[in-house]
Structure formats: C-alpha cells, structure tokens
Amino acid sequence: MAEAQTAVQAEETAAVQAEEQMENEVEQEIKKASAQNRRYLRPREMFAFLLTSFGQKNLNQFINAYRQFFMISFLGLSGSAYGSIIMFESIYDALDDTLSGLIVDRTRTRWGKLRPYLIITTPVWGLAILMMFSTPAFLTTTTFKVIWAVVAIFAHNLGMSYFNTFNILLYNVTPNINERNNLIAAQKFMELFGTWIPSFLPFFIDFLPKLTNNSVGQEDVYLGFAFIMVVISAGTAIYGFFVLRERVPLASKEQIKSVSIWESFKIAFKNRPMLVLQLNYFFNGFKSVGSSSEVFFWTHNAGKQSYATIAGLFTGIPNYFIVPLAPKIIRKIGARNAGVLAGLFGGVAYTVLWLIGYKPFGEWDSARNIILNMICITLMLTICGLPNQLINVVGAVLQGDVYDYGEWKYGVRNEALIATVSGYFQKLANAVTGLLSGVVITWVGYEAHTDVFGNVVRETDVGVLDGFWILFCLLPAFARFMYGVSLLFFNVRGEFKRQMLQDLEERRAEKIAAMQQEGSAPADGSGAAPAPHDTE
Q1: Which of 98, 113, 162, 499 is disulfide-compatible with 117, CB 3.0–4.6 A?
Q2: Are 283 and 482 in contact, with CB atoms under 8 Å apart?
Q3: Residue 492 neighbours by CB under 8 Å, 6+ apart
C-alpha cells in the first residue's frame, strides 16, 4: 500500500513539474512576443536621425560632385596632382582610422560612445571644407596650391574619421531589427531630398555671373554654397546629438580590458562577412570614378551644368517609390539576393546607355537637338538609376549583419573597430579610385582653360568629349556588375542568420539582466532586451 501511495505522489509531483515547466515556456513565449512588438524610437528621435542624415547627405553630395572640378578648374591643380593627393590622403586616412576606431570603441560617456563625436569634430571638417572651395590670393605658385589642397583634404578627412560615427549610430539607437531596417529605409528615402540643395548650384553657376555682370564669379558661387552646406550639416548634427539616444548595451570596462588591441584587430579581420562586404565596396567604389567626371560631361559635352539639374528632376523620381518598397523586397528575397539583382541590372543599363551615345539626335548645337538628346539621356539615366536606392538600403542592412555577426562570433560588439578595418579596404578602394578619378581626366587629354573673367571655357576636342562619355557610362557599368557578383559570397543569410539572431537575443537579455542586478542598467529602460529579429 505504501509503495502505491509513493507512486501516486511521484506521478502527481511529475505532473505539477510538467505543468510548471509548460507555464514557464508559455511565459517565455509571451515575453518574446511582447519584445517582438516593442518599439524603442520616439518620433522626435526618428526626426532627429533623419534630419542629421539629410544634412550629412547634402554635404557629401556637394563635396563628391564638385571638389575635383573646383580644384582642377579654379585652384589650378592638374588631374594627376589631384589624383595623387587623393591617393596619399586615402593611405593616411586608413592609418588615422586605426586610432579613431580604437578611441571610439573605448569611449564611455554619459551620452554614449558615439554621440559626442557629432559635435566635437565640427570645427575641423567645417573649416577644411571652406578651404577646399576657396583660392586665396597668396596661392601664387603651384607648390602653394598643392600644399593648400593637401591641408584642406587631409583636415577634412581627419574630422570625418570621427564624425562618421553617425553611420554606426544607426545600429545603436534601437536593438529591434525590424525598427532598424525600417529606419534604414526611411533614412535612404530622406537622403533623396539630401541631393536637392547641391543640385541648384549649376543654375547659379550658369546664370548668376551673367546677371551680375561677372561681379559675382563662378568661384564665389562655389564658396557660398560650401558655407551653406557646412551650416546645414553642422546644425542638424548638433540637433541630433541632443535628441538621439544609444540603446544597445555597451561593453563593460572589464570586457574592453580583457580584449587587447591586437586581439581586437584579429577579431575584426576574422569577420568573414565583413571581408566579403569590403570586396563588394571595393568594386562598387569604381563607380565614383565615373561619377566624379559627370560635371565635366555636362559642362563640355552638353554645354551647361544646369542640364544635370534638369535631368536630375526626372531621374530621381523612381527612387521615391523604390525606397519604401526596399524593406519588402529584402524580406521577400533577402538582402544579399536583392543586391545581386540590382547590381547586374545597373551594369546592363549603363552599357546600353553607352551604346546609344550622348548625341543620338545630333550635336548639341540647336534647341531641337538639345531637347531630344536630353530626353533620351534622362530616360536612360532614370533606368540606370532604378537600383541605386535599393543598393543603398541593402548595403546598410548587410552592414548591420556584419556587426551582429561580430558580436555573435566573438562576444564583443566592436562596431567602430570593425568600421576601421572596413575602412582599410575602403581606403584602398578610395586610393585607387581617387588616383584614377584625376588621372583619367589627364588620360582623355583634357586641359582646363578659363576666360578673362575666370569662367571655364567649353572643350571642343572630339576625342576628349568621347573620353568623358566613356567615363560617364562604362566605369559605372563595370562597378555595378562587380557589385552584384561579389555579393554572391556573402553568407549571413537564411537559416544561419535566423539562428544567429536568436542566439544574440538571448545573450543580450542575459547581459541586461546582469546589469540590472548590479544596478548599472540605464534608468530609462533603454537597455531592455531587444526584439526578436525578422529573417530573410
């Protein structure tokens, strides 16, 4: 009888334990479901992030589009001299990024590790940009001009080495991957408006000197716009500093000390997805060689820089529809696959544009030919640009995967150091493309000429004009093809990515719980466990 009672009690105990276990499992699932729906970003923060992105995009667009043209055409640098400066600047910048990455990753302030750099670097890059678009009277020799350009370009990149932590901040303002991806798409949509202000510059270049009888020259217009770009970017960055918050848990001082500088570099270099993504960036960087020649094409082949602005009014329209669709496309076929298809499509489109030519309806010497040629080129550029914003969103999403993979693989989230190592490869690409962007102008046989008022004289040599067209089309075609092919080797996707993100979620929750027990968790609850990640 006693044995029977003992057996019954054991069964009852087992049943109670099973029920408690099931309740615990249900509770955990409820917590996960609750976390999955959690939103961290306040509307004011989203606005601040997008506004800061808007200012940064305006600034970068202005510099990338006009710096080379200004320094060759007005400062008087040769194409080879400019290209050599950019090449050596890229090498220096890679060394500087080593220090900046280590400093940023080890920064621990009451404002976080990234936000302070939004404001303390502003005077450096702001002054450097004004230098890049000015030609003081004391620059009377080639040596003085080269020194002036070197100081301006190097100082600009020194400031940007730290200011560009804004791009890493994207992955720290929220641990919810759904919210992060939506913010990425919103950022890329906002950046479409970030090209508007620089796009007005050609109109002022073409017409303001004439309206003022050359009392305001083209050089003055460039400097004025440089000042406007600096004010906008600096103002939006300062606003972002005061509004944004960092929410992904920081590594403790003990964790930072436990990983040596050398070990940190070894970890970063062993990040396989990062290496693949850098190969992707390297090939895609060749597009900048063609992009840097666009001003030369519109000025000399077409006859007016303002034609670029007119074309841009139409070529950018599809982007406003592509960007909102990007998250859906990525969820449907995956970020890697979306990037591959976008790259191959862009390569084919640019090749077709080159085959059509820049004057399919005749020389740009009559109103009829100008209108027809503009319609043709604008239509083709619109087709070529269809995948551009999808590529931008894909790149940001894959960069987030790289950071997540590093944290999952090695236990420490060293975004700034990974960004530094990434910078080595990007600086290598920049060194090559920077050199080429200047050298190719020399290769095509172009020499800058200005009139008595200092305005650029239009080139008439057919060989030079054809060279500008090749740079305008075929280099972007090559860049897009290689962008798509290189992404085939990116392996953070599918089931592997799903399991990785699930592991990360559990580890972060444990870290937050430990911080709360020690009393070091953020008082505002911003260190709560992250939401489960959507998968591809």
Answers
A1: 162
A2: yes
A3: 273, 398, 401, 402, 404, 405, 500
Domain ranges of the chain: 42-518
> Would you say 343 and 485 are in contact if contact means Cβ atoms under 8 Å apart?
yes
Report the b/e string of 481-514 with b at 16+ CB within 10 A. Answer: bbbbbbbeebebbeeebeebbeebbeebbebbee
Is the four-CA dihedral 173, 178, 179, 180 of positive or negative sign?
A: positive
Report the distance separating Cα 113 and Cα 169, nearest Å.
9
Question: Which of 387, 350, 378, 388 has the alpha carbon at shortest distance from 478?
Answer: 350
Q: What is the DSSP secondary structure assignment for residue 358, as one 8-state letter?
A: S
DSSP 445-503: T----B-TTSPBPPP--HHHHHHHHHHHHHHHHHHHHHHHHHGGG----HHHHHHHHHH
Residue 71: alpha-carbon gap to chain centroid = 24
Distance CA 29, CA 14 (A): 22
DSSP letter at 259 equals: S
| 42-518 classified as CATH 1.20.1250.20 | yes
Give yes or no for a contact between 248 and 179, defined as CB atoms under 8 angstroms apart: no
**Global confidence as pTM:** 0.57
Taking phi first (over 0 means left), then psi (-120 to 50 degrees means alpha), and beta for anything else, what does residue 449 get?
Answer: beta
Tens of each residue's pLDDT in the chain, 536 residues: 555 556 556 665 655 565 555 555 544 543 444 444 567 778 888 888 888 888 888 898 899 889 988 999 899 898 888 888 888 887 777 677 667 766 777 777 778 778 888 888 899 999 999 999 999 989 989 999 999 999 999 999 888 888 877 777 877 788 777 787 778 888 877 777 777 788 888 888 888 888 888 888 888 999 999 999 999 999 999 998 998 888 765 555 555 554 455 555 666 666 778 778 877 777 777 777 777 778 888 988 898 888 988 888 788 788 778 878 888 888 888 888 999 999 999 999 999 999 999 999 999 989 999 999 999 999 999 999 888 888 888 888 888 888 888 778 776 666 666 666 666 666 666 667 767 777 778 888 888 777 777 778 888 888 889 989 988 888 889 889 988 988 888 888 888 888 888 888 787 777 767 766 665 554 444 443 333 333 33
Token code pair at residue 416: 């700034």
Short-list 219, 166, 222, 174, CA closest to 198 = 222
Tokens, residue 474: 């075929």
